[in-house]
Every structure is written in C-alpha cells, then in structure tokens.
Amino acid sequence: MKAKGTRIGWLAAVLAAVVVVGMGGGSALAEETLKIGVAGAHSGDLASYGLPIAKAAKLVVEEVNAKGGVLGKKVELVVEDDVCKPEVATNTATKLASQGVPVVVGHVCSGATKAALGIYKASKIIAMSASATNPDLTQSGEYPNFFRTIASDDAQAKLEVEFALNTLKLKKIAVLHDKGDYGKGLAEYAKGFIEKSGKAEVVLYEGITPGAVDYSAVVQKIKKSQADGVIFGGYHPEASKIVSQMRKDKMKTVFISDDGVKDDTFIKVAGKFSEGVYATGPKDTSKNPMDKMVREAYKKAYGEDVGVFSINGYAATQALLNAIQKAGSTDYDAVVKALRTEYVETPLGKIKFDERGDAIGVGFSVYQVKDGKYVEVVN
Amino acid sequence: MEYFLELLLGGLTRGSIYALIALGYTMVYGIIELINFAHGEIYMIGAFTGLIVSTILTAYGFGTFGVLVLTLVLSAVYSAAYGFTVEKIAYKPLRQAPRLSPLISAIGMSIFLQNYVMLAQTSDFVPFPALIPDFEFWEPYSHIITSSELVILSATTVLMIALTLFIRHTRIGKAMRATAQDRTMAMLVGINVNRVISSTFIIGSCLAAVGGVLIASHIGQINFFIGFIAGIKAFTAAVLGGIGSIPGAVLGSMVLGLTESFATGYVSSDYEDVFAFLLLVFILIFRPGGLLGRFTTQKV
Amino acid sequence: MRFWSEIKQSVLTALWFIFLTFPILVIRVNPIEKLVIWRWWNLVWVGIGSFVLSFLWRALLRRKERGKPAAFAATVGKTDWVGWVAASPKRYVPVLTLVGLVTVLFPVVMSPYQTNILITALMYVVLGLGLNIVVGLAGLLDLGYVAFYAVGAYSYALLNHHFSLGFRTVLPLAALLAACFGVLLGFPVLRLRGDYLAIVTLGFGEIIRLILENWNEFSFGPSGISGIARPGFFGISMSLNQTIVYLYYLMIGLTLFTIFVVNRLQHSRIGRAWIALREDEIACQAMGVDKTKTKLTAFALGATWAGMVGVFFAAKTTFINPASFTFLESAMILSIVVLGGMGSIVGVIVAAFILILLPEYLRAFSEYRMLIFGMIMVLMMVFRPQGIVATVRKAYQFQRRTS
Prior knowledge:
By secondary structure, chain A is an alpha/beta fold.
C-alpha cells in the first residue's frame, strides 16, 4: 500500500512540475513591452540556419532598446522553436498568436512558413522571413501577410542560368540538388530556364542525398556526362563536399550555386578547392558600413561569425520595428502600409517591400571565390 | 570500364567509412543485444574532440605526424570515456529491464548528446583540418584514390584484422564471446560480466573515435548532427552483414557502399537510399541472419 | 563512516565529469584562424552540478533496488495503480467523471494554443495505440511506422487537391489504404525476427519518404502540398479558433473510438493470438495459430490508425511535405509505446501526453529544451524500465464454489 502511494506521489510530482513549468512559461511580464515573435529552427539538424537569425534579431532589439525602444516601449523578443517542421510550426504560430505578438520574424524553412502563415493570416499577424525563398509564398497571392528580406528561388535560378549561358557560354550543364524544398525548387527552375533558352542542354539532372559521407559516385557521373558546368541547388555542406571531390579528381568543371553556398563557411570548409566557384547572393553590401558594423557586433556578442541568414534576419527585424515606429501603432493595416511605403536603412541597403511581399532593393549578383573571398563579378 | 572502376573504388571508400562506425556498433550488439543509437553520437564527439585537440596542437607547433597520432589517441581516450559513462548511466541500470527499454534510453541519450555538443560548441558546420597529408609517393595514383581514402581503407582493414585477432585470442576477447553466447552461464564460470560489457563499450567507442577523426579529416567538416546519419547507415550495414559478426560488419558496409555507388552511377542518385534499403530487404528475405550471421533455428 | 564514503564517491564522480566535459565544454576553437577560447567557468558548474546530482542518483537507484521485491510481491495478486483505480466503481467513477469534465471543458477555458497542442498530443495517443498493436501486443519491432502516417496524410492532401474530396470521405479511405500498405510491408518480413525486422521496417519508412521526395509528378516533391482544406462543419464557415475547437472534439471522438476498439481487440481471439505470437512464435504455431494471418492483421490493423491520424495531421497543419515523416518521428512514437508500458492503453495515453506536451512546456528553457527532453527520456527509462503502467496479463481465476 505504501509503495503504491509513493508511486502515485511520484507521478503527481512529475505532472505538477510539468504544469508549473508550463504556467511559468506562459505568465506575462507586468511591465508593458512590445513583443516581437521570432520563430525558426533552434534545435535539430537545421538549427544552424535558425539560431543565427534569432541571434541577429536579439542584436537589433538590444540596440533599439538602448535608444529607448519603439513607440516608447521596450521591445521584447518571444523566441520560439519550430524545428523546421510544419506540424510544430502550427503550434509555434498559435502560441505566438495567443501571446498577442503583432509581427513575427520567421519562419526559417519554406514548409514551416507555409504551415504557420495560415494561422498568422487568421490572427492578423505579419510574418517576415529572412530565409524562406519558395516562390509560391509571395507569388501565389495566398499570403498577403507575408514579407521577406531574401529573394525568391526563381529570381536566383534565372540569374544563375543567365550567367551560365551568356557570360560563361556553357553548352552542357549538369543540374544537381539536395532533394530539399529549397534546393530542389531552385534546381527545377534552373532546368526549366535552360531548356526554354535552347542555348544549352541539361546533361544531368539529379538529387544527391544530403548528409552523405561522400559524393564520389555523383562526381564520376558528372565527369562522364562531360558537362562543362554544374548548377547546384542546396546548402554549403554538400556543395563543399562535391567541389572538393571534383577538384581532387582534377576536374575543372565550373561550379555555380546559390546563396545557401554564398557563405564564408563554404570557403573555410572547402579551402583551396573553393577557388573559382560561383555563387549568387544578395548584392555586395560589404561596403555598406552598417553591414560591417553588424558583423563586428555579432562577433563581439556571440564569439562567432555571422551565420548564413544573419544579415537578412537583422534586416527583417529592423524593417518590422521601423514599420511599427512609422505606423505609430501595431495595427495590421497601418504596419503593412508602412512596410510597403517607407524605406528603411538596413545592412542589405535601403529597402521597402512590393505588393507581393518581396523586398525592393535587395538585388542579387553573382560572386566568385578569389583568394579565399567572395568577390562580386562585374558583367 | 574506367567509369566502372571509379565507381568501384568510390563505393569501397564509402564502404570503409561505414565500416569504421559499424564495427563498434556490431560489437556492442553482439554482447548485450542493444541497438546503441548513441554510438553515432560517440563518433561525433570523437570528431569534435579531434578538432579541438588538433587545433591546439597545431597552434603549439607540432608536426603533421605528431598531431595526427596525438589527436587519434586523445579522441579515442575521450570517446572511450563517454562510451563508458553512457553505458553506466543509461544501460547498466536497465540490465534486467524489458528488451526495448534500453533502446529508448539510447534514443534519449542520443538526443541529449547532440544537444549538449550543439550548446557547448556550435550549431554551424565547422571546418575540420586535413590531418592526413598528401603522401608524395602516392601522387601518381591520387586521381584514382586520394591519400586520405587510402588511409581510411587501410585503417579499416587493419582494425578489422586486429579486432578479430583480439576477440579470438586474448583473455578478455574470449570472455566477450562467452558473454555474448550466454550471459548467465558466463557469470557462473566466473567472468565479470560488468567489466566485459564496459570494455566492449570502451573498445567500440575507441573505434568510433578513430573513425570520427579519419572521416572528418577526409570530409573536411563536422557539425553536431553528423553522428545521426552515419549511425543509421552503419547500423544498416551491420545488420546487412549479420549483426554481431565483425567480418560481417565490414562486408555489409562494403556491400552497402558499393550498392549506393553503382545505383548512383548507373541509375540515379535520387533513389540511392531506396536501392540500398531494397537490397537489404532482399538479402534478409533469403538470408534472414544477414550475410555472415548465423540464423539460429529456435528450439522449443 | 557511510557519510564519508558517500562524499568520496560524489567527489570522484564530480572529478570524472570534470574530466569528461573538459574539452567540449571548456575549449572552443576556430581551426582557420587558430583561435582558442577557454571557458573555465563551465568546469566549476559541472563540478558542483555532478557532485550534487550524484547523491541524488545513488539515492534514487537505491530506492529503486529496494522497491523491487516489494513491487514484485504487489503485482502478484494485486495490480498497478491503474488497476487499483479500476478495481471498484467507487474509485473509477469520480476519476472518469473528472477526466471527462476536463476534456469537454478544455477548449472553452484554455487558449487556442493549449487546445492546439492538446490535439497534437491526442494524435500521438492514437498513433501510440496503433503502434502498440504491432509492438506491444504482437511483439514486432516496427521502426518505420511513420510511413503509414505519411500514407494517410498524403491520401487526404492529394485527394483533396485533385478531387476536392472532404475530410469525412477520405478518413475511411485513408484507413483502408494504410491497412493495404501494412499488408504490403508485412509480406516480405514474415520470416524476420527482432532487430532484423526493425531495420527492414526502418528501411520501408525511408523508402516511402524518399519516393514522396523524388516523385514530383505524384507528390509535388519536397516543396509539399499547401492549402489543404480544414474539415468543415456541414458547410458552415468557421474562424480559425472555431476550427481548432472543432478539430479538438473530432480528435477526442477518434481517440475514444480507438481506445474502445483496441481494448476490445486485446481481449478478442486475434488479440490473444498476437500475445501468444509475441511470447513464443513456435509454440504459438504449434497451438494452431496461423502465423501469416496473425502477423499480417497486426501490421494492417496497426497501420489503419496511423492512416487516420495522418488525415487529421494534414487537416490540422493544412500543409504537408515529406520532411515531417522522418525516422525520428517513428522513434518518438515507439518511445511513447515503450515508455507507456508495452501493451497498456492507459500507459500509452499518459506517455503520449508527457512526451508531446513536455517539449512544448519546456519552451521556457528555449535552447535547452531538447537537452532536457533527452535527459528526461533516459531518466524515465532508468527509473521506470517497465513503463509508466506495467501491463498485467488478464488472469482468469478459478473460483471454488462455496456451498
């Protein structure tokens, strides 16, 4: 009898602890603040894309609060993890909605963003992503509450293909992707643009397995297809493995990729093999003093270099806070109008947003790795 | 023909990478019949320790060879310590528990270790220095197979042979086989089963660490999640070869690596893993105990 | 004397953990710039933490050891706390009334967020109960259960997208389809046992996911299907919050239905055949149980529930892509079954609530969330290896007639 009692007691204690923790998480602060949601993958395998955005958002908020906040209120971040999974993203979104945030920086992955946007739309919340590049998000017209500080996949694919066909005059192109929604979407557009142009042929179109230990078989296939160029849709970990393997095999095939690869980590990881690789990415902002400042502040605060989408995340947070300030309230329509009309100074340059939610002023250009640095290619 | 050879070599390299991890897997399984999901994380921790040690050593001006050896040794020591601790915390209290309970605590441990490294180190990919130099004598052949691939291939072979000899001829190896056959009986004849299990974990973790350092140096990058994917593949390979059998683990890894390589080369890498798993299903239908495993007829 | 040896042990543990965590917690390097950062303070925390925790750990382990014979004695005659509650109407009537009242009133009182995560938890209750048939009752270790979940979700998404079929039409269709896939998986693995079965089912799950990822013309590939219709209530348009509440009640309905069916199945002819199969395959065959049929029904009936929950999943998130159906998901469902105590319905329900709601409530710890979650999973298994509710085989007692 006694053993039973303690067992129930034990269970009750666990449940009580869970409830207490839950309540603790939900309790609001007494001081009135302006709450801003930040949603994205902060754990799991895609955390390396989500965390740098959240960290960048924190930087903006610290800076804004030091200057007195927005509309006289201190800004407070509500950071929520969605693990880049649609099902978790809906929970994250309902949580943010019930906490009454007017705007959300996020989400990170296009899939999770799509799942969350339905809920934000119903709750009149504006979402601005720093990394979701799926064209449907802005082009389908389904999500009027969505904005982003990054260009969509098709715009990038178009630039890549034009560069490959007109500047590099490639004739045989191998198109690869990492089977993810970002990489495969981009590769499909690229393939479509090449076929439509009729100037070159796609000699190979394949998805590689992300996270695989090596890609020697795929590299052999590229070699056999005699492609003079590779267009890769995906992220830098896979790209660096493919490029290294190609160069070790003494292949000189041109490698063109996207902004998932236009990241300093790629150069660090691929080392000397990264020389000559092309990647599209946001217009060169390194001369922008703000960009330099953000990079330094980030390094100082977190002891590491900015992540892939940190700058975009920084810009998104700035744009949202600026719009609220200009609109004079957190009213949905007013903020949307401010986003579309008021320019804001960001590390990406001076930007505002078009009717569909894409940023105007966030241009794309082609970069090439030269002496261990990405250098803008002048056409 | 040359294409075929290239694919063959690529497949073998990939296979030997899997084999380095699968060896530890299969050893642990042989002794306590536990799918040790945390084994992949031990491999990952080995790689991270290797990164830290090698960077510090290079900063203090050690030579290439010294760095490589010291990194391997220290990573092995730390991975072994982690393997030992994980066993003590998550598996030892569960010796008498139902069969699936340790499997779940292994999954929990795997989640814990991943997040521990993510929080303590970084969530991003980190470049890993190439510890294996490009051998000059190998230069003429390096377009067929690079120096680091050569090192991985030979390390796998050497480790497999050493391990087989170890298990066959040493005292503790014999104790391991006895424990694997019948734990209660082994206890009765005076074998300290707890010590045998601990040493299995320690040896398995050392292997994982060697694998971690060599593979990371070959690939050139690591992050906290590499253990998970590698672990699943190594597990598949170990089962394919007949889990619990050491030559089986190597053979299974090679078969898996070659299948993936040829599937990509001649069909499409879109369905690379589909082919790998279909092959697994077919082999297990005709040989339900794996390639080299014994399918014991159950007695009633 | 005892006191000092305890202290000594804890000091040793602390030293061991300081050694263990030294490189990863203290040193951070940047191999390109050859930068090394030392964070000595972390060591102090590890030392203090492991010193204190090692006391707790040993005390709890001792308690567990001591409790063992007593618990064993208790289970002979009597049952676990669930059995204790279920033993007489005086106990279970108030408990059930309370649970019922909380269930019905929950969405009215709590916020949509709370209701939403409760729907997720209920979905996992049903998934757990479904997998429980395969793993808990029939003893077939299935690591690819998520494949059937995907089948259900994609049937609704595709049928809704192409033919705009409604939620209620697709629900039985998806269940049927998932059952067919269950049989499809069942055939090749009939001969396999234990971990060989586990790896083949894992492969099956991966194959389904890879096909969904690669076959764009069929499944729209990795970019997924968006704009899936939420279930409508006889053509009345509802706001988002109303739909959440509606889905919640639907899900409660499905859960109750599942509990009822699984409970009846357990004690039916086929249920007893499953249990016999789990205990000893050969003896079971010798008793005249058709092994093929029994195994295939276990796979099919287990898959059915996953198919139905898949439909709920697609309707709830309104967007699906293959990334939701990874091995990790299967592992989570399996953890629910094992943690609940294999074969126990109440156990599965409690475990699903703990494992699904815990990460949500742990959000307060933000980035430490999954770290704590993994730790709790290990601790629960260590201190309660037989699961939250240990199953008690139904015992039929011969009653001596008293004259």
